[in-house]
C-alpha cells in the first residue's frame, strides 16, 4: 500500500505525464489512459523496487518517456503503464482485452518479458531474449519503442543493483538496445543509453570525461560565442527564421574516439557541433538549407571532403540534414549541421515523429521492411542468435552507399558492400545463382566493392550454388544469412556419415563420444554447430591429430591408459564442481575470491590480461576453468551480453603471491640508449621480468610495446609513472584489452 507522501508523488507523476503528452487531450484517449493508470496503481500497490520505492513509479516513468521523448500516441502510453501488469500480477492478457481492446492486448503480449527461453547452458539467454523480441514484433513499432523506454528507465535506476548485475545489464544495453535505438532514429535515447552503460562498464573513464567537459566548458562557451556571432549576423539579414544550438558530443562518443585512436581528451577536436535549425515549410526546406550552407561558407572555409548531404537521400533511419566542417578564424575545425524543424524533430525522436508530417512519404515503411527482414532471418529455428547478433550490429551502424539497378531503381547498401551483397539485396535466388556482375558496363567478380553511384547488373546461372568462400565477399546480414542457409542445406547431407566417422575417431583415441566431449572438440577447433563439425569430419578435415591436440594425448601417451577413466568420468566431476561453484556464488553473490579455494579453477583471458586490482569478471563454462576478463574488455562485454547468467563478479585473494602478464605501450623521441634505460628501470629498480620488448622507429619517433610480469595494478601504475618521468617519453599507458 502507499503512504500519503507516495500518493502525492504518484499524483504529481500522473500530472507530468498528461502535461508532456498533449496540451488538449482527446476525451476518449484521456479516459483510456486514466483507466490504465488506475489499474497499474492498484495491481502494483504491494510491490516495491530495489530502491524501496513503489513499483508503480517505474511504469509511470516509462509512460513519461514514451510521451515526452518519443511523442507516442495514447495507446502507447496506456501500454507503457500496463507493460509489467501481466507478468508481475494476476491480471491476464484476456483481462486486458476485456478491459481495454485487442490492440492493447496484442501490444502488452509483445511487451511481456520472456522467461525460460532456452537451456542457457547451450546458448545465450540474452541473445535469445533479443531474438524473441524481434519475433514478437508486428509492424506496429510501438512494441519495440516501449521496450526502449522500459530499458532507459531501468538504466537510469541501475545504481540500486549489485555490481555484477550492473555490468551485465549495461553490457546488454550497449550490445542490443543502443544499436536498436540508433536504427529507430531515437538519437537522444541511444546517447543516454550509451552514456549510462559507460558509467557502469568504465566508471573511471566516465568520471574523467565528465570532469574534463565541466572544466573546459568556460573556454568552449567563449569560443562558440565568437564562432556563432558572424553566422547570426548574416542570417539576421535574411528572412529565414532560425535558431542556433550547440550539440556536445556524448561521453560515450568521446570515450570511443579516445580509445580507438589512442588519444587524450584534449586531442578530441569535435567535442561539439553547431546546429542551425530553420523554421521553414516542408516544400522549401531543401532550398533553404542549401542557401544557409552557402551563407556560412562565405564566412568560413569548408573542408570539402567533409560535406554530407543527407537531405537529398536521408539515412535509413530517417535522419536528414546537411553536415559540413569549416575552419574557424582561430584555426579550429568545427562541424555545422543545417536542418529544418521537421528534420530536427525526426533526429530527436525518430520515426515516431513522422506521423506529425502527413504530407511526406510514409517513411515508416522503410523501418517496417527492415524489421520484416530481420524477422525472416530469425524464423529458422536452426539460426544461431549469437552469430546473427554480430552481423546485426555491423549492419545497423554502417554508413550507406546508393547503387542502382539497370532500370534505375536505387538500392541502399552499407559502405564496402560487394556486388554479391547487391545481388542478395535484390532477391535471394539472384544472389544464390550469381556468377559475376557488370558495374558501369564493366565485367567484375562478385567480390568487387561497390561505391555510391554504381549501376550494377548481376549475371546468373541456373547451375550456380553458393560457395563457402562467398562468406568472405559479403558484409550484409541478409547475404550472410542466405549463404549460410544454402551451405547448411548442403552440409546436412553429410550429417550421418560425418557423425559416424567422428565416432570412430573418438573410439580410436579412447575418448567417450559424449555431448560434453563433442562440445570440447567444437570449441577447440572453433566450430559452432554440429552440422559444421560432422561435415568437416566427413570431408576429412578433422582427423586423429585434432583429437590428440585437443586432449593433449601426444604428450601423455606413456600413461594414457590410466587417463581414460578420468575422461569418461569427467562429466560427473564437472557437474559437481559447477553445482558447488554455483552454490558459492548464490551464497556470496557480490564476488568470487580467486585463489581462496583450490576448487575454484580459473584461467586468465589472454585478450585483456587482467591483473590483481583490476575490476574483473568470471565466465563460467561447464567443464572448463572459469575465464577471468577485465570488466572493460570488449570481448568480456560481448560475453556479458551473451552469457549474462553465467557471469560472476570476481577478485583475487589479497596478498596472493601471483605474477600477472601485462602490457605497456609508449611513444618517445628516438634516442640511443632508451631501451637500456627502460630495461634498467623494469629489471633492476622494480625487479620485474620482461617477456617481450618491441620497438619501431620512424622519422625520429619511436613506438614500443613491453610485455612483462607484475604483482598487481598498483605495481604496474607505479612503473608507468616512473617511465613517464623519462624526458624523451611522450606517451605511456597500459595496453588496452583487445
Topology (elements, then pairings):
Blueprint: H1 4-21, H2 27-43, H3 57-68, H4 74-82, H5 85-88, H6 93-99, H7 102-111, H8 125-136, H9 142-156, H10 163-183, H11 187-201, H12 203-236, E1 242-248, H13 251-261, E2 272-278, H14 285-299, E3 301-302, E4 308-309, E5 322-327, E6 333-340, H15 341-349, H16 364-378, H17 385-397, E7 400-404, E8 410-414, H18 419-426, H19 428-432, E9 434-439, E10 442-444, E11 456-460, H20 477-492, H21 495-509, H22 515-524, H23 530-538, H24 544-550, H25 560-568, H26 570-587, E12 592-594, E13 602-604, E14 616-619, E15 626-630, H27 634-642, E16 647-652, E17 660-669, H28 674-685, E18 689-698, E19 701-710, H29 713-724, E20 729-734
Parallel strand pairs: 2-6, 12-16, 13-15
Antiparallel strand pairs: 1-2, 3-5, 4-5, 5-6, 7-8, 9-10, 9-11, 14-15, 14-16, 17-19, 17-20, 18-19
Helix pairs in contact: 1-3, 2-4, 3-4, 3-9, 4-7, 6-7, 7-9, 9-10, 9-11, 10-11, 10-17, 10-27, 11-12, 12-13, 12-14, 21-23
Look at the helices and sheets and give the structural class: alpha+beta
Helix content: 40-55%
State the CATH superfamily name of the largest domain. Answer: Hypothetical protein af1432
Name the quaternary structure: single chain
Please, what is the average pLDDT?
81
Strand content range? 15-25%
What do we call the CATH topology of the largest domain?
A: Hypothetical protein af1432
Number of helices: 29
Number of strands: 20
Could you list some keywords that capture this structure?
738 residues, Hypothetical protein af1432, Beta Polymerase, domain 2, 6-stranded mixed beta sheet, 5-stranded mixed beta sheet, globular
Amino acid at each position: 500500500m502507499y503512504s500519503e507522501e507516495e500518493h502525492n508523488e504518484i499524483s504529481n507523476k500522473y500530472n507530468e505525464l498528461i502535461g508532456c503528452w498533449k496540451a488538449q487531450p482527446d476525451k476518449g484517449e484521456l479516459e483510456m489512459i486514466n483507466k490504465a493508470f488506475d489499474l497499474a496503481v492498484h495491481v502494483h500497490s504491494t510491490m516495491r523496487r530495489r530502491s524501496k520505492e513503489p513499483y508503480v513509479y517505474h511504469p509511470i516513468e516509462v509512460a513519461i518517456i514514451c510521451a515526452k521523448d518519443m511523442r507516442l500516441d495514447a495507446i502507447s502510453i496506456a501500454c507503457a503503464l500496463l507493460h509489467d501488469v501481466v507478468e508481475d500480477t494476476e491480471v491476464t492478457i484476456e483481462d486486458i482485452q476485456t478491459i481495454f481492446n485487442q490492440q492493447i492486448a496484442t501490444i502488452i503480449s509483445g511487451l511481456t518479458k520472456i522467461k525460460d527461453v532456452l537451456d542457457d547452458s547451450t546458448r545465450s539467454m540474452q541473445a535469445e531474449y533479443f531474438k524473441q523480441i524481434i519475433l514478437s514484433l508486428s509492424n506496429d513499432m510501438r512494441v519495440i519503442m516501449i521496450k526502449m523506454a522500459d530499458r532507459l528507465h531501468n538504466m537510469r535506476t541501475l545504481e540500486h543493483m549489485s555490481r555484477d548485475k550492473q555490468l551485465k545489464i549495461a553490457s546488454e544495453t550497449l550490445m542490443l538496445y543502443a544499436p536498436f535505438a540508433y536504427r529507430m532514429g531515437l538519437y537522444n535515447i541511444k546517447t543516454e543509453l550509451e552514456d549510462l552503460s559507460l558509467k557502469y562498464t568504465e566508471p573511471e573513464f566516465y568520471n574523467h570525461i565528465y570532469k574534463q567537459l565541466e572544466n573546459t566548458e568556460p573556454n568552449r562557451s567563449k569560443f562558440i560565442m565568437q564562432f556563432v556571432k558572424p553566422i547570426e549576423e548574416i542570417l539576421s539579414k535574411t528572412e529565414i527564421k532560425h535558431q542556433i544550438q550547440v550539440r556536445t558530443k556524448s561521453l560515450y562518443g568521446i570515450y570511443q574516439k579516445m580509445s580507438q585512436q589512442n588519444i587524450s581528451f584534449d586531442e578530441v577536436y569535435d567535442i561539439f557541433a553547431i546546429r542551425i535549425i530553420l523554421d521553414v515549410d516542408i516544400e522549401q526546406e531543401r532550398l533553404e538549407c542549401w542557401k544557409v550552407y552557402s551563407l556560412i561558407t562565405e564566412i568560413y572555409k569548408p573542408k570539402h571532403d567533409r560535406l554530407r548531404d543527407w537531405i537529398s537521400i536521408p539515412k535509413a533511419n530517417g535522419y536528414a540534414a546537411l553536415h559540413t566542417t569549416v575552419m574557424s578564424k582561430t584555426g579550429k575545425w568545427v562541424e555545422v549541421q543545417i536542418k529544418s524543424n521537421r528534420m530536427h524533430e525526426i533526429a530527436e525522436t525518430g520515426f515516431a515523429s513522422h506521423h506529425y508530417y502527413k504530407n511526406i512519404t510514409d517513411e515508416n515503411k522503410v523501418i517496417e521492411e527492415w524489421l520484416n527482414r530481420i524477422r525472416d532471418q530469425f524464423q529458422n529455428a536452426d539460426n544461431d542468435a549469437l552469430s546473427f547478433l554480430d552481423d546485426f550490429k555491423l549492419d545497423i551502424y554502417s554508413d550507406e552507399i546508393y547503387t542502382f539497378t539497370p532500370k534505375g531503381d536505387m538500392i541502399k547498401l552499407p559502405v564496402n558492400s560487394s556486388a554479391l551483397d547487391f545481388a542478395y539485396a535484390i532477391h535471394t535466388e539472384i544472389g544464390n545463382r550469381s556468377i559475376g556482375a557488370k558495374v558501369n558496363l564493366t565485367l567484375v567478380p562478385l567480390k568487387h566493392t561497390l561505391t555510391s553511384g554504381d549501376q550494377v547488373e548481376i549475371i546468373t546461372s541456373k547451375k550456380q550454388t553458393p560457395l563457402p568462400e562467398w562468406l568472405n565477399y559479403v558484409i550484409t546480414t541478409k547475404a550472410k544469412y542466405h549463404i549460410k542457409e544454402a551451405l547448411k542445406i548442403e552440409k546436412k547431407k553429410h550429417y550421418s556419415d560425418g557423425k559416424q566417422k567422428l565416432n570412430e575417431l573418438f573410439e580410436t583415441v579412447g575418448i567417450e563420444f559424449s555431448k560434453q566431449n563433442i562440445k570440447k572438440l567444437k570449441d577447440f577447433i572453433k566450430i559452432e554447430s554440429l552440422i559444421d563439425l560432422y561435415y568437416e569430419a566427413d570431408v576429412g578435415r578433422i582427423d586423429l591429430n585434432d583429437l590428440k591436440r585437443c586432449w593433449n594425448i601426444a604428450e601423455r601417451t606413456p600413461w594414457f591408459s590410466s587417463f581414460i577413466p578420468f575422461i569418461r568420468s569427467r562429466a560427473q566431476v564437472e557437474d559437481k564442481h559447477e553445482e558447488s561453484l554455483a552454490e558459492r556464488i548464490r551464497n556470496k553473490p557480490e564476488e568470487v575470491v580467486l585463489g581462496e579455494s583450490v576448487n575454484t579453477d580459473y584461467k586468465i583471458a589472454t585478450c585483456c590480461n587482467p591483473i590483481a586490482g583490476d575490476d574483473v569478471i568470471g565466465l563460467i563454462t561447464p567443464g572448463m576453468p572459469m575465464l577471468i576478463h577485465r570488466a572493460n574488455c570488449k570481448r568480456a562485454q560481448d560475453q556479458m551480453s551473451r552469457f549474462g547468467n553465467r557471469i560472476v563478479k570476481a577478485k583475487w585473494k589479497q596478498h596472493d603471491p601471483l605474477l600477472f602478464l601485462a602490457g605497456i605501450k609508449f611513444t618517445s623521441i628516438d634516442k640511443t640508449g632508451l631501451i637500456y634505460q627502460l630495461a634498467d628501470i623494469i629489471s633492476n629498480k622494480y625487479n620485474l621480468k620482461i617477456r617481450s620488448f618491441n620497438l619501431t622507429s620512424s622519422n625520429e619517433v619511436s613506438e614500443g610495446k613491453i610485455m612483462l610480469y607484475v604483482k598487481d595494478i598498483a605495481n604496474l601504475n607505479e612503473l608507468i609513472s616512473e617511465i613517464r618521468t623519462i624526458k624523451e617519453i611522450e606517451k605511456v599507458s597500459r595496453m588496452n584489452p583487445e
